[in-house]
Amino acid sequence: MSSTNNQNSIIDPSKGDAARRTFLLASAMFLVGCGTKKITSTLPSPIWNGQEPSTLDPPSAVVMLPDPSSMLGAISRGSWAKGPAIPRNMNRMLPARYITLHHDGMTAFTSTSKLSAASRLETIRKSHLRRDGGRWGDIGYHFAIDPAGRLWQGRPLTWQGAHVRAKNEANIGVVVLGNYEQQSVNRAQLRAVTSTLRSLMEKYEVPVSKVRTHQEWAATACPGKSLQQAMVGIRGRSLI
Ligand SMILES: [Zn+2]
Predict the structure, then answer these.
(1) Which residues contact residue 155 at a Cβ distance below 8 angstroms, ignoring those fewer than 6 apart?
(2) Which of 53, 97, 117, 138 could form a disulfide with 146 if both were Cys (CB 3.0 to 4.6 A apart)?
(3) Distance between CA atoms of residues 169 and 177, nearest Å
(4) Nearest CA among 64, 60, 55, 62 for reference residue 11
(5) pTM recorded for the entire structure
(6) Cα 82 to middle of ligand 1, angstroms
(7) Closest by CA position to 21, among listed 34, 42, 5
(8) pLDDT category, 175, cuts 50, 70, 90?
(9) 194 CA distance to ligand 1 middle (Å)
(10) For the chain, what are the domain ranges?
């Protein structure tokens, strides 16, 4: 558990116990979706890392990153999210060192409709805002890729994500919409995953060894068999 709370010490040590309790409670609740081996049609649940959102470092203490979403051609968060991000519930992003790939782990999703993808993102955002007693500031992932291969902006990259327990610091989260235990990755998605990862790796100088899937961090089925297999192929062929 020490790694869970490793950031509390630089934020507010007095919050450690509360954060630990919250994390234990949250862990018990996170038995569905992208954080577990259980295959389910319920909502995804990347895991809050136990930080106390109300005790952020002052902005002057961290390095601000430009938000490259527009550079990557991502569809803006504003075009799908029906509410603003909540800065007091998020930490500033640190310079990226890792990129992590997920699936959303809900039902299989093959629609290429833009509207369907927007609606699914909003469903995920709302479920994330309810997590941990309502202390999340936004959807947990920074980017999303839909079945048509479109790239969507999630949580702006100026903010730390919430997608891998205790490993969110400096970690860019990319989710592929759908359940890749139950469905296959299509060509458009493969191309989008490859180009998105490549762009982020170049922009932030992240080596291929630090481009991981969720199950390479923790015991989880995420991102599903099909996407995991695809990712192994992409890393071996296209990202080196
Ligand atoms: Zn995941």
Answers:
(1) 77, 85, 90, 137, 138, 139, 140, 141, 142, 161, 162, 173
(2) 117
(3) 23
(4) 55
(5) 0.76
(6) 23
(7) 5
(8) very high
(9) 18
(10) 2-237
* CA 37 to centroid of ligand 1, rounded, Å: 10
- Please tell me the distance between residue 4's alpha carbon and the centre of ligand 1 in angstroms: 17
Calculate how far, in angstroms, residue 108's C-alpha sits from the geometric centre of ligand 1.
15
Cα separation, 145 vs 193, whole angstroms: 7
What's the pLDDT score for residue 72?
86
User: For residue 62, what are its two tokens?
Assistant: 């961290």
pLDDT band of residue 29 (cuts 50, 70, 90) is very low
